[in-house]
Amino acid sequence: MPHPLNTPLGRFGVDTTHEGADRCVASIPVAGLTNPSTGEATVAPLALLVDHIGGVVNHLRRGDGEWTVSSELAVEFAPGAADTIATAPDVPVVGVARPFGDKPDTALALCELGVRDVVATATVRSFYIAAPAELFAWPEASSAPRPGPRLSDLMAVEVAESGGDGSALAQADDPVLNNLVGTVHGGVSAMGLELAGSAAVQRAAGAPFRTASLRVNFLRPFHGGGEARYTARAVHAGRGSGVAEAVAVGADGRTALLARLTAYR
Asked: Where is the Thioesterase domain (predicted)?
């Protein structure tokens, strides 16, 4: 099931083939997309796929009057994941998510992503709240073309001044990127953190590094526009490994998401 182009999932070409409380299966095209700050091939879109499939499994386990809010997302990338994806440019990455453990006030989903081989494993943790009194309706399906082929076009981001040795991306206000509660989709913001974090490591090390792991904490709703941005700084850049800390700051100037990224040469 392809999603309408004027929704976050449709914008990035996500195709969902199964949705259920027992399993969610979906795919996303990744080959050819690059980090706007470095120009290197990126695995950032896998965070969007993970957020989607893991979030669906957790959400469909909710009880009457409950809603889900994602609180944590973690992805472990296989060594050479970007290379594996590049060897099959016409094959999308397929992700499968399943529930893990009981569902008390929180729920955990386990995910596996692959092309011809497994390229990542991941988890999504959600907690349950009272269902919102009002939700935004998805817009009518549109056949309008996507804004451009580059990842920066799809995400409505542009490279910004970091004010130091780190990296920064400005997040524009694009309603297509919002979820049902009117804030930037969690998978989109997780992508932004990966892009900023990996760029910060590469800038500090002065050489290409490959993302090995990404852990994101969702603290509060993230709104694009104004001063909304993703910023990151390397806290370690050695000969063989690097670590970056990244934040997403919303239009209100408050930190909405935190992330830590580890990369290897």
From this structure: 182-255
Distance CA 246, CA 8 (A): 22
pTM: 0.95
pLDDT of res. 162: 81
Separation CA 209–CA 202 (nearest Å): 6
CA triple 159-215-203, angle to 5 deg: 35
148 lies in some domain = no
Residue 18's domain is classified under what CATH number? 2.40.160.210
What residues make up the domain containing 107? 8-130+154-264
- Give the span between the Cα atoms of 30 and 220, in whole angstroms: 28
Residue 1 pLDDT grade (very low, low, confident, very high; cuts 50, 70, 90):
confident
* Residue 168 pLDDT: 98
Asked if residue 144 is part of any domain, the answer here is no
- What is the reported pLDDT for 136? 62
CA-based nearest residue to 122, from 135, 114, 130, 112: 112
Domain tally, the chain: 1
Helix (H, G, I), strand (E, B) or coil at 129: strand
Q: Which residues neighbour 252 within 8 Å (Cβ) at sequence distance 6 or greater?
A: 223, 226
Within 10 angstroms of residue 88's Cβ, the number of other Cβ atoms is 14
